[in-house]
C-alpha cells in the first residue's frame, strides 16, 4: 500500500441546481519520503485536491488513505485531529500572526500537537536561528515564508502540504524556498506535496502529477531528480 492513496475521488459542488465537479474520479499514489509537485492550469482542481488531502475539505465520493488510515471516512472530530497532528500547511501568503515573534509563531503550532520538534531546532533548520525574536513585519517575504515552513515542521507532521509557496516571492527568493523544501524532504525523509505554477519545481520533484479539468492527466515519476541550487 502506498503512503498516500487517492482512489476514484470526486468533489462535486452544488451551484444552485447545477452540480460542478471540481475533481472527478481522481486516482494517484504518493510514496513515503517523496517530493511531489502538482501542476495544472487555473481551475483544474489542484486546490480542491490539496484541501481534501489536508482534511480541510471532504470528498463527495472515493477513498483517501494516508499511512494506512482511511481519511475519507473520518468524522468532523477526527478530521480536526488529522489537520492538527498529521498535516503541516504552508500557504502563499505565509499566514503568520503579526503580533507574535518568529519563535512564538512556531511555538503556537507546537502547543497544539502531539509530538512537536523544538522551536529553536526548526528555526535553525530553515536558516533563521538569529531572527527568532523578530516580528513578521521585520522580516522579508522569503524570511516570513521560512518561518511559516518552520511552523509547519514544528508539528512534526506526516505530510507537509504547500499551496503556491513561492507565489508571492521574486524568482531568486522563490528558488531558495524551493531548495529549502527539497532539503527538508531529503534530509528528514518527510513527504512534501507542493501545488505550484512555478515550473522550476518540476525538475526537482520525485513525482509530478499533472491535473486537468478535475482529473489526473499524467504522472511523471523521477527517482533521481535534480538538486535545487
Ligand atoms: P488558484 O488555486 O488557481 O490560485 P483558487 O483556488 O482560489 O485559485 O480559485 C480557482 C477558481 O475557483 C476561481 O475561478 C475561483 O473563482 C473559484 N472558486 C474558488 N472558491 C470558490 C467558491 N467558494 N465558490 C465558487 N467558486 C470558487
Ligand atoms: P485550481 O486550484 O487548480 O485553480 P480549484 O480546485 O480551485 O482549481 O477549482 C476547481 C474547480 O472547482 C473550478 O472550476 C472552481 O471554480 C470550482 N470550485 C472550487 N471551489 C469551489 C466551491 N467552493 N464552490 C463551487 N465551485 C468551486
From TrEMBL:
PROSITE patterns: ABC_TRANSPORTER_1, ABC_TRANSPORTER_2. GO terms for cellular component: membrane protein complex. The keyword NADP does not apply. CDD domains: ABC_MJ0796_LolCDE_FtsE. PANTHER family: ABC TRANSPORTER ATP-BINDING PROTEIN MG467-RELATED, LIPOPROTEIN-RELEASING SYSTEM ATP-BINDING PROTEIN LOLD. Belongs to the ABC transporter superfamily. This is ABC transporter ATP-binding protein. It comes from Adlercreutzia caecimuris B7. The lineage of its organism: Bacteria, Bacillati, Actinomycetota, Coriobacteriia, Eggerthellales.
Amino acid at each position: 500500500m502506498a503512503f498516500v492513496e487517492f482512489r476514484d475521488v470526486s468533489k462535486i459542488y452544488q451551484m444552485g441546481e447545477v452540480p460542478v465537479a471540481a475533481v472527478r474520479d481522481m486516482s494517484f499514489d504518493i510514496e513515503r519520503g517523496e517530493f511531489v509537485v502538482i501542476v495544472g492550469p487555473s481551475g483544474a482542481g489542484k486546490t480542491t485536491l490539496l484541501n481534501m488531502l489536508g482534511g480541510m475539505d471532504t470528498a463527495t465520493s472515493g477513498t483517501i488513505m494516508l499511512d494506512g488510515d482511511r481519511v475519507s471516512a473520518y468524522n468532523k472530530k477526527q478530521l480536526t485531529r488529522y489537520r492538527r497532528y498529521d498535516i503541516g500547511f504552508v500557504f502563499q501568503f505565509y499566514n503568520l500572526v503579526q503580533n507574535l515573534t518568529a519563535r512564538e509563531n512556531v511555538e503556537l503550532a507546537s502547543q497544539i500537537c502531539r509530538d512537536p520538534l523544538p522551536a529553536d531546532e526548526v528555526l535553525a533548520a530553515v536558516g533563521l536561528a538569529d531572527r527568532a525574536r523578530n516580528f513578521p513585519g521585520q522580516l522579508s517575504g522569503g524570511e516570513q515564508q521560512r518561518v511559516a515552513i518552520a511552523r509547519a515542521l514544528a508539528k512534526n507532521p506526516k505530510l507537509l502540504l504547500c499551496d503556491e509557496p513561492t507565489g508571492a516571492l521574486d524568482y531568486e527568493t522563490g528558488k531558495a524556498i524551493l531548495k529549502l523544501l527539497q532539503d527538508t524532504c531529503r534530509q528528514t525523509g518527510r513527504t512534501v506535496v507542493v501545488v505550484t505554477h512555478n515550473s522550476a519545481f518540476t525538475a526537482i520533484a520525485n513525482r509530478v502529477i499533472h491535473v486537468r479539468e478535475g482529473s489526473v492527466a499524467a504522472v511523471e515519476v523521477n527517482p533521481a531528480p535534480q538538486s535545487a541550487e
